[in-house]
Amino acid sequence: MMDHAIKLDGVRKKYRFFSLDNICLELPPGQIMGLIGPNGAGKSTTIRILMGLVHQDGGDVQVLGHRMPQEQVAAKWDIGFASDDMRLYEAMTLEWHMNLIRSIYPKWDAAYVQLLLKRFGLRADQRIKEFSHGQRVKATLLLVLARRPRLLILDEPTTGLDPVARHEILRELTGVMADEGRSILFSSHNTQDVEQISDQITFIDRGRIIDSMDKEVYLDRWRRLRLEVPAGIELPALPGIINVRQQGRLAIATANVFAPDLANAYENTGARVQSIETMTLEEIFVANVEHSREEVDA
Amino acid sequence: MKDSVVQTLILSDWNRHRFFIMLSIFGGVLALGLVAWGGELPTILGSTWFFVSLIVLGCMMPVSNVINERKKQTLPFLMSLPISVAQYTLAKIVSTFGMFLVPWLSLVVVGVLLIAGRQEIPDGVIPAVLILAGFTLVGFCVVAGVSIATESESWTIGATIALNSSYGFGWYVLIRNRELRTGFANADPVWSATVLTILLSEAAIVAVVLALTFFVQSRKRDFV
Amino acid sequence: MDGFVISQTDKRPIYLQIMEQIKRRVAVGDWAEGQSIPSIRQLAVDLSVSVITVKRAYLELEREGVIVTQQGKGSRVAPNPGLGLRLQEQELKKHLEQAIRLSAVLGLQPEELEGRLREASENIAAKESS
C-alpha cells in the first residue's frame, strides 16, 4: 500500500489572469478529502492537474504513486473522474456508454450497476439528451462508480442537484469508504456536504491553499465567542482570534485557534463570556476567506 | 492494453456516425444514379451533386467528430479514459480519415465504374473525376488537420470556406489547359504527365498535412 | 441504520449527535452491556458520514466508558452496571448548566431560577395526576 493516494508538492501554474501558487496537499489512502473554496479559487485547475489534463509549470504531482502528467495513462486505469463541465454523448443511450466503459475496464460490477440504476432512478435504454440535469449527473457518476476505481476525483459532484439526488450521491460516496483501500477527492461549494462526508478538508482561495487538515481537528479549532463588554472596556487583540465585531455592548469574537484560556483572557479584562459556540463549516468558510484576503491585501 | 483503448475509441466514433456515413454514401449513389439515367440536365445535376456530397462530407466529418468533442464538452469524458493526448489524437485521426475515406473511395470507385461501363460517357473523363475527387480529398485533409490541430470551430469553418471557394477556381485553371481539355474529352483515359503530376501532388499534400497535424498535436501541453 | 438521524440543522457537530444517540440507546437498554456495536467504518457507511467523525465519536465514548474497542475485534458496549444512571447524571448536569446560562442571559437571579424550577415541577405533577 502506498503512502498517499494523492500528493501535491509545490505545484504552480500560471495563466494570464490567474495563477496557482505553491499548492501542497496530501490525501492518505482510505480517506475522503473535500476541496472547498470560492468560485475561481483554483479548485478545477488543481483537479485537472491531478488528472494530467493540465501540465503544471512546476512542482511534483503524484497520484496513486504515479507521477503526473507523465504517467497519466497508467494512473487513469485506477481513477474515476467526473466534473460538472463534462458531458456524455447526447444522442447515445446510457447503456451505450456503459458498454463503452465496460469494454475498456476489466473491473465492472454488473450487479452493483443494476442496484445503482434502481437507486438513482435511471433507465439504461434512455438517451442522454432525454435526461434531466440531475439524472445526467447521476448517470456520469454511475459510470464512474461501476468500475470500483481505487481513487475517485470529482469536481462538483452535487452541484445543482435537488436534495434527494444529493442524498443518493453522498450515500454512494460514503459507501465507497467501506473499502479501506479506496479514496476520494471532491470539490464542492456545498459546505454541508463537505462537512458531512470529508475526512480531510482543504481550503483554497485565489490560487493558494489556506488550510488543509483533518476535518474534526479543523472544526474544533474554530469557535464563536459571544461577549458582553461593559462600557469603558476595550477588548484586547488575542492570539487565535481573527475577527471581533462589536456593536454597543455586545461583541462577537471569532477564533480560528481556540483554547479555553481565550475565554479566561477576555474575562480578565472585565468582559463577560456569554457563550462559546461551535461554527458550521459554512460560517468557517466565510470567516476564513475574508480573513485570508485581508491578510494578503494588507 | 492501451492500444485496445485507441481501438475502442475509433470504433465508438464509427458507431456514433454510422447513420451519417450511410446517408452520405446513399446520397452519392443517388447522384450517380442521376448521371446513369442520362440526359444533359440529370448528368449535370448528378455530377454536381456527386462532388458536392463529397465536399459536404469532408467538411461535416471533422466538425462532427473533432470539433464537437470540445463544443459538446465530451472531451473531459474521453480524456478521463486511460489514454494520452497522443493516443487520443491518433484515434481521432484514424477515425476521422477512415470515416471520410470509406465513403469517398466507394463513391469514386462506383463513379469510375459507371463511366467505364457507359458508352455515352467518354472514359477520358476518368482522370478528371479522379483529379476533382482528389480536390475534395485534399480539402478534407486540410480541414481535418486544422480541426485537430486548432480544436477551434472558427478556424475550421474558416478553412472550410477558404477551400470551398477555391475548388471552382482550381477547376477553372485546369480546364484552361488545352492538353487536359482534349484529354478529358477523349474516348479513352489519357494519363499524361500533367495528370499524373496533379494526382501525385494531391497525394503529397495529404501526406504533409497528416504529418503536420501529428507534429502540432504533440507540442500541446494543456489539453482540456 | 434504523433510528439514527444526523440533523444538519442541529448546530452541534455531527460527532456529538452520534455520541448522544448511542448513549441514549445504552441508557434505555436497547443496546445491552457487552453487546457488539457496528464497526466505525460500517456506521460511517450506514449514516453517510465521514469515517473520521465516527472515529472521534467512538474515541470520546470510550473515554467516557460507554463503549470498549478492541483492536481487530471491533467495538462493544462497555460492561458497567451503573452506566445507565451515570449517563443520565451527565445529562441532568448538562441541562442544569444550560438552564443557568439561559437565566443569566435573561438576567434572572438564582432564587428566581429556583422558583421557576419549582413551578415547572408542580405543573408536571398536576398533568400526570389528571
Strand and helix layout:
The complex is a heterotrimer of chains A (298), B (224) and C (130).
Chain A: E1 6-14, E2 19-27, E3 32-36, H1 43-50, E4 58-63, E5 66-67, H2 72-76, E6 79-83, H3 94-104, H4 110-120, H5 133-145, E7 151-155, H6 163-176, E8 183-187, H7 191-197, E9 200-205, E10 208-214, H8 215-221, E11 223-228, E12 241-247, E13 250-255, H9 260-268, E14 272-278, H10 281-297
Parallel strand pairs in A: 3-8, 3-9, 6-7, 7-8
Antiparallel strand pairs in A: 1-2, 1-4, 4-5, 9-10, 11-13, 11-14, 12-13
Chain B: H1 2-37, H2 40-71, H3 75-79, H4 85-117, H5 125-150, H6 153-175, H7 178-185, H8 193-218
Helix pairs in contact in B: 1-2, 1-4, 2-4, 2-5, 2-6, 4-5, 4-8, 5-6, 5-8
Chain C: H1 14-28, E1 36-37, H2 40-47, H3 51-63, E2 67-70, E3 74-77, H4 83-106, H5 110-129
Antiparallel strand pairs in C: 1-3, 2-3
Helix pairs in contact in C: 1-3, 1-4, 2-3
Average of pLDDT of chain A: 93
Count the strands of chain C? 3
Tally of DSSP helical segments of chain C: 5
Strand order of the largest sheet of chain A: 6-7-8-3-9-10
Radius of gyration of chain A: 22 Å
The total count of strands of chain A amounts to 14
Structural class of chain C: mainly alpha
Oligomeric category: heterotrimer
Which stretches of chain A of 5+ consecutive residues score pLDDT under 50? none
Across the major sheet of chain C, the strand order is: 1-3-2
Helix/strand order of chain A? EEEHEEHEHHHEHEHEEHEEEHEH
Net shape of chain C: elongated
User: Which residues of chain C form runs of ≥5 with pLDDT under 50?
Assistant: none
Instruction: Indicate the structural class of chain A.
Output: alpha/beta
